[in-house]
Amino acid sequence: MLLLSNPNREQWQEILARPTFENTELEQTVRSIVDDVKQRGDDALLHYGRKFDNPSLESLAVSEHEIAGAHTLVSQELQDAIQVAIRNITTFHERQEETPVVVETMYGVKCWRKNVAIEKVGLYIPGGTAPLFSTILMLAIPAKIAGCREIVLCTPEGKNGIHPAILYAAQQAGVTKIFKAGGAQAIAAMAYGTQSVPKVYKIFGPGNQFVTKAKMMVNTEGVAIDMPAGPSEVMVLADHSAHPEFIAADLLSQCEHGMDSQAILLTNSLEIARETQKQVDVQLQKLQRRELAESSAQNSKIIYFERMSDAVEMMNEYAPEHLILAVEEPFKFCKQVINAGSVFLGNYSSESTGDYASGTNHTLPTHGHAKAYSGVSLDSFVKKITFQEISEEGLLNIGSTVETMAAAEMLDAHKNAVSVRLAYVRKLQ
């Protein structure tokens, strides 16, 4: 990883640039796939599934028999780990439920808001270089808690089938239907519906640049998505109290996601910077996904600042998906965090714990979108509908205010909708 020292502010934008592979060819490729699925439905899904994932793909729907038998192919140790994660994720997201509160804004005028589940949601789970069954838990559990009636999952079937841990996690987390579809074609299927795949109202889940582009495309046509997303990223803010071995492990945990991932260390200790750089090289040699991690490490940096205040400013400018505060007083620095998806405090809070089992959601805004977006939560699976009730007394109290405002906007019908009611109420008195 490249080590930079006290970069000038004029250099920050270039230093913090995310890797990008956006091009016209990508746009055209995804558009052609999306349009093809929209027109041909299942036939297109089978075509792309055989082309990109499994040449022997015969059907799209995962059968009940396949789902029921998945647990026999998952070790008891992994089943137990998944159950711990389910309990923690459930506990954290259940606490996000809100009880409607009726607010009487003035006498006789009552207003409240109620959470109502999105009826049909679609989850996309990559299944290529890594079977991300943990993401199923992060999406399906809050969807189930929210009360979503239909939870549809699409994931590609490889030559050896769908990874059994994906099927086991889906069954345990409450997914209602599973389909063997990956890439941009899966997003299109859930957005528009096919003969087999139901149309959903909102699509969740990570993916490569093709998946991300497809989500953005269908979003412009009225299908909601969880958030703009891109490659995974982590930033570590460290001082003299940090452990270079821990930091290197955290940086590489993101680098192994893919060649377009990014990891950045900000520190006011040259010793920590140099030792971390050495540890990255040492640990890199031991990784199964070494080639991916090496490619990603080319996008990653270690940045030394003499003043920690400059590091904090760069931290908020970058707006990382994951932020680790490996500092002596992490709660002090918490107050200075303005832009981040999820924050991990202290030397023992590895980003991996949030990825899998601590309870917080790991579906987070990337590419700087943490400046305006939150990660997935229970709120992501509900609509908030407002209600109000105006009594006779309330109408008498608020009526003239509405009439005055409607008249000033020259909207006579709006004014009249109140005036006719006022006249009726006054006759009753």
Record keyword descriptors for this entry:
17 helices, Single alpha-helices involved in coiled-coils or other helix-helix interfaces, alpha/beta, five-stranded parallel sheet, globular, 429 residues, 3 domains, Rossmann fold, six-stranded parallel sheet
Please explain how this structure is put together.
There is one protein chain. With 429 residues, the protein is an alpha/beta fold. It has helices at 9-15, 24-40, 42-52, 64-69, 76-94, 133-146, 164-173, 183-192, 209-219, 244-255, 270-284, 290-297, 308-318, 330-334, 351-356, 392-408, 412-428; strands at 2-5, 103-106, 109-117, 120-124, 150-155, 177-180, 202-204, 224-225, 233-238, 262-267, 301-304, 322-326, 342-345, 382-390. Helix 2 (24-40) packs across helix 3 (42-52), helix 5 runs parallel beside helix 6 and helix 8 packs parallel to helix 9. The longest helix is centred in the N-terminal third of the chain and has 19 residues, at 76-94. It starts with a strand and ends with a helix. The mean pLDDT is 94.
Number of discrete domains? 3
**Which fold name is given in CATH as the topology of the largest domain?**
Rossmann fold
Strands side by side in the biggest sheet: 1-11-10-9-12-13
- Low-pLDDT stretches: none
CATH architecture annotation of the largest domain: 3-Layer(aba) Sandwich
Outline of the structure:
With 429 residues, this protein is of the alpha/beta class. The chain has helices spanning 9-15, 24-40, 42-52, 64-69, 76-94, 133-146, 164-173, 183-192, 209-219, 244-255, 270-284, 290-297, 308-318, 330-334, 351-356, 392-408, 412-428; strands at residues 2-5, 103-106, 109-117, 120-124, 150-155, 177-180, 202-204, 224-225, 233-238, 262-267, 301-304, 322-326, 342-345, 382-390. Strand 7, helix 9 (209-219) and strand 8 form a beta-alpha-beta unit.
